[in-house]
Every structure is written in structure tokens, then in C-alpha cells.
């Protein structure tokens, strides 16, 4: 019954005006490091999307570190009045360490924009997120924002999901349900799911919300309608959320090896 959600990935034609990359220049350095590429993307996104007297969602991950650096620079140089809402413990600590105003969704349920990284972005602006285990809070914050802006380096830019990111799609689950959820997804959509294990402790990774994470290695050769797949997985009891972000991102910035920043709009 679930095979109806599978269809060719590119069955819907991509509008070239929507998906075409724009290129801007960040640095004249001939050979840039991956960290330089992340910084270029983060700085450009902050400069273009963050305005005075706004509430900004601050995502998680290594690229977001540069975005927070740039936010702090602009607050100091321009006197911007910002409230920053974190998506994780890491983001909260970054906001505090840089002297930015810390907010939450209880006092700031509406955000002007959310700036976050991604593990992979496909040609239709579908994202895989959750490699760092913060997918639930990242999705909640993004859903509260008028615009979700993705910052990443060139290794996160793909034509289709799985082309670059090989660790699978993270799925946050209630601990008691991880085995039946794993079995149901494998039976319905193929592939395999593994419980994410911790590195510096015995046992599985536990999210900020006290849940487990299953990483789904889907079938590469199979084309999926990710919106339909996401909806079907979300209906399985015990699934808290998925790392599939479908129809959420407004714009993506990819820092390149040569110092340029490639842009893709939804």
C-alpha cells in the first residue's frame, strides 16, 4: 500500500529560475579550505538576511559557528538589536559566549529568519538534517520562521539525496519503539536502519529531548517522493520527527573551493 509514495525523483520538472545557482565572490584566495568555504557561505547569508530589530533562529553544526561570529560582529559594528533563538545546547552556548541576546519560542513564537546548516541539499531544496542529533529542535525553529536559510560548503550540494551524504536520514524516535519503527520502515520503503550509537559513552545516542536516533540508509537506486515518504514515516507511532526537511528552506548558500558562494532559491 505504501508503494504509491514512490515515484521518479525528478518526475516534477525543476524550474530553472527556481533551482539555478547564483554565484557571488567571497575571497580572492586561489585555494580555500573547507572551513573558509563554510565561513563565506555563513557570512553572506547573515549579511543578506539579518536585519535590525529581528528575531533570528540559530541552527546547529560547524557552519553555524561562523554565522554566530558574523552576527556578533554586526551587532558590535552596527548596533543591531537582535534576539537569537537556539536549536540546540550547542547553539545556546554559542549565543551566550558571543554576548548575543538569548531568546526562546515561548517569548518569541515568530521568527523573522532561521539560519542553519544541512547535511545535504538536493536539486529540489529537500534537506537531510540531523547528523548532529538536533533535528527536532531545528525543524521546530525553522517552522516558526518566515524564511529558513541554509548555509553549507560545496560538499553538501547534491542533485539527489544520498549522492554526497552517506550516513542516511536521521529519524528521532521514542526509545521504547525503535525496533518496531525500524522494522516497519524497512518493510515499507526498503533499505536498512541502524540505531545511532554514542562515541564517548556506552549505548545509543540520546538527543536533547531524551530520544533515540535511527539512521535510515535508503535504497540508492530507488526514486522517492520525499514529501510522501516523510508524511508516511511521521504517521508511525513512536516517530518523533525525521531529518527530512521538505518545502522548508527558502535559500541555500554553498561556499566553494575558489572563494565563490553559490546560491539556490526555492
Automatic annotation (TrEMBL):
Pfam families: Rib_5-P_isom_A (PF06026). It catalyses: aldehydo-D-ribose 5-phosphate = D-ribulose 5-phosphate. Gene3D superfamilies: 3.30.70.260, 3.40.50.1360. One of its GO terms (cellular component) is cytoplasm. Pathway: Carbohydrate degradation; pentose phosphate pathway; D-ribose 5-phosphate from D-ribulose 5-phosphate (non-oxidative stage): step 1/1. Keywords: Isomerase. Coiled coil: none annotated. GO terms for biological process: D-ribose metabolic process; pentose-phosphate shunt, non-oxidative branch. It comes from the Eukaryota. It is an enzyme of class 5 (isomerase). InterPro entries: NagB/RpiA_transferase-like, Ribose5P_isomerase_typA_subgr, Ribose5P_isomerase_type_A. Its EC number is 5.3.1.6. One of its GO terms (molecular function) is ribose-5-phosphate isomerase activity. NCBIfam families: PRK00702.1, rpiA. Belongs to the ribose 5-phosphate isomerase family. This is ribose-5-phosphate isomerase.
Amino acid at each position: 500500500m505504501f508503494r504509491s509514495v514512490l515515484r521518479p525523483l525528478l518526475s516534477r520538472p525543476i524550474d530553472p529560475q527556481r533551482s539555478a545557482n547564483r554565484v557571488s565572490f567571497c575571497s580572492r584566495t586561489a585555494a580555500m579550505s573547507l572551513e573558509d568555504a563554510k565561513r563565506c557561505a555563513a557570512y553572506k547569508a547573515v549579511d543578506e538576511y539579518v536585519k535590525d530589530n529581528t528575531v533570528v533562529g540559530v541552527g546547529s553544526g560547524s557552519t553555524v559557528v561562523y554565522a554566530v561570529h558574523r552576527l556578533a560582529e554586526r551587532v558590535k559594528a552596527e548596533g543591531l538589536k537582535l534576539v537569537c533563538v537556539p536549536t540546540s545546547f550547542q547553539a545556546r552556548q554559542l549565543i551566550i559566549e558571543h554576548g548575543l541576546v538569548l531568546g526562546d519560542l515561548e517569548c518569541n513564537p515568530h521568527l523573522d529568519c532561521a539560519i542553519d546548516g544541512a547535511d545535504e541539499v538536493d536539486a529540489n531544496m529537500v534537506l537531510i538534517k540531523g547528523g548532529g542529533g538536533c533535528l527536532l529542535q531545528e525543524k521546530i525553529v525553522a517552522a516558526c520562521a518566515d524564511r529558513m536559510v541554509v548555509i553549507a560548503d560545496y560538499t553538501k550540494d547534491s542533485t539527489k539525496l544520498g549522492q554526497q551524504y552517506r550516513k542516511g536520514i536521521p529519524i528521532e524516535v521514542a526509545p521504547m519503539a525503535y525496533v518496531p519503527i525500524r522494522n516497519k520502515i524497512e518493510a515499507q520503503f526498503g533499505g536498512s536502519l541502524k540505531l545511532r550509537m554514542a562515541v564517548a559513552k556506552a549505548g545509543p545516542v540520546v538527543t536533547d529531548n531524551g530520544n533515540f536516533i535511527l539512521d535510515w540508509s535508503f535504497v540508492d537506486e530507488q526514486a522517492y517522493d520525499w514529501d510522501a515518504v516523510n508524511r508516511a514515516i511521521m504517521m508511525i507511532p513512536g516517530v518523533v520527527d525525521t531529518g527530512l526537511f521538505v518545502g522548508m528552506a527558502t535559500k541555500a548558500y554553498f561556499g566553494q573551493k575558489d572563494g565563490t558562494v553559490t546560491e539556490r532559491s526555492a
